[in-house]
Amino acid sequence: MQYLDTGNITRGIVESYQAIDPQSERLPSRARRKVTSGDIIYSSVRPIQKHYGLILSPAKNVLVSTGFTVIRANDRLVCPELLYLFLTQDSVTKTLQQIAEQSVSTYPSIKADDLGALQFPLPSSKEAAELQPALKDIFGAIDSNRQECKQLAKLRDALLPKLMSGEIDVSWIDLKQLNGHLVRLRTLVIVSRSTVYCMRAPFVG
Predict the structure, then answer these.
(1) What's the confidence (pLDDT) of residue 60?
(2) What class has domain 1-205?
(3) How high is the pLDDT of residue 162?
(4) What was the pLDDT predicted at 32?
(5) What is the Cα–Cα distance from 56 to 34, expressed in whole angstroms?
(6) Which residue among 59, 83, 95, 106 is the one 20 to 30 A from 47 at the CA level?
(7) What is the pTM of this model?
């Protein structure tokens, strides 16, 4: 079982899941909400902190905190990617924060009804038909890149101690050729970051 608390995701990027063995451990009392691919999770406390994300290809047995509102798009009207982009606009965040500050709870918070009351223009059927495939491709590519980065980070953590101890011999590597490859890779990374920033599309997989 994997559990995601509100503080472990910011602007669509998951810091970590809490692994729980139900046979030997008790689930946190707030681990109650199930999510599926395409769900948007939005923390009800302090919207200005931007604890939200779009769930794509979640692992099995994932539960999220009851501190999240789970939003499921009506696919007949709007795709989840477009709805997520709307909900994560700075202007929407500011509006929700203003609502939260007027709440009578201990912490500035919003309710599911506050999210449900938001309004935004829907694209025409023709526009939606053009937008949706492109948005799904972009979000899917970002999700794949993040999953690959996680795997590369694990590989780095496994190999670095062996490299530092001399267990792995790298004396045969041509550094000039390697540096040339890194320059080209750096260029690609800058382009990718620019694309993500322009699309305003951070999310969680």
Answers:
(1) 80
(2) alpha beta
(3) 87
(4) 87
(5) 13
(6) 59
(7) 0.75
Close Cβ partners of 5 (under 8 Å, ≥ 6 residues apart): 18, 28, 30, 64, 65, 67
> What tens digit of pLDDT does each residue of 36-45 get?
999 999 999 9
Q: What residue ranges of the chain have pLDDT lower than 50?
A: 185-186, 188-205
What number of CA atoms fall less than 13 Å from residue 26's CA on the CB side?
3
Report the pLDDT value the prediction gives residue 200, as an integer from 0 to 100. 37
- The four Cα atoms 185, 191, 193, 196 give a dihedral, to 10 degrees, of -140
How many residues are present in the chain?
Answer: 205
> Residue 42's closest CA among 105, 106, 101, 89?
89
- Strand order across the beta sheet in which 40-43 lies: 52-54, 40-43, 68-71
Best CA proximity match to 54, nearest among 37, 30, 67, 68? 37
* 120-129 per-position pLDDT tens digit: 888 888 888 8
Residue spans of the domains in the chain: they are 1-205
44-57: per-residue pLDDT in tens?
999 999 999 999 88
DSSP state of 51: -
Q: Are 39 and 9 in contact (CB under 8 A)?
A: no
* Angle, in degrees to the nearest 10, between helices 175-199 and 125-165: 150
Look at strands 2-4 and 18-19 and give their pairing.
Answer: antiparallel
CA dist., res. 132 & res. 138, Å (int): 10
